[in-house]
Write a structure and sequence with these properties.
Radius of gyration: 15 Å
Number of strands: 4
Keywords: Monooxygenase, Oxidoreductase
Structural class: alpha+beta
Oligomer: single chain
GO molecular function, one term: monooxygenase activity
Strand content: 25-35%
Distance between the termini: 16 Å
InterPro entries: Dimeric_a/b-barrel
Protein name: Antibiotic biosynthesis monooxygenase
Largest sheet: 4 strands, antiparallel
Shape: globular
Organism: Massilia frigida
């Protein structure tokens, strides 16, 4: 399993941004190999983080090549005050069920 973490600061997020963001999120969910996602905001730094989980690098790459993602990447300077992407292989997940983690895969015990 892999995760792709998109960390970004924002400028002005207009209606075009929100529409394109929704198209990308819907496209991700429709791709074979999509496992789930979550989003975080750090109120101290003002940064946001979107984390997507994937069965394979090929599934992640399919989103990276989606036309809406390419359009957003080309226009990111209009909306974002910088960004950073982290692609990781997930070696293990574990924890208690009470948290209700959004990944659609069973936890692997340590």
């Amino acid at each position: 399993m892999y995760s792709s973490t998109f960390i970004f600061g924002t400028k002005h997020l207009d209606e075009e941004f929100h529409q394109l963001d929704k198209v990308i999120a819907d496209a991700a969910k429709a791709l074979p190999g999509y496992l789930g996602e979550e989003a975080w905001e750090n109120r101290t730094t003002g940064l946001f983080s979107n984390v997507y989980y994937w069965e394979s690098l090929e599934a992640l790459q399919a989103l990276m090549q989606h036309p809406a993602h390419l359009q957003a990447k080309a226009a990111q300077a209009r909306w974002l005050d910088g960004y950073h992407v982290v692609i990781s292989e997930v070696v293990r997940t574990y924890g208690n069920a009470e948290l209700g983690h959004r990944m659609n895969v069973p936890a692997v015990n340590p």
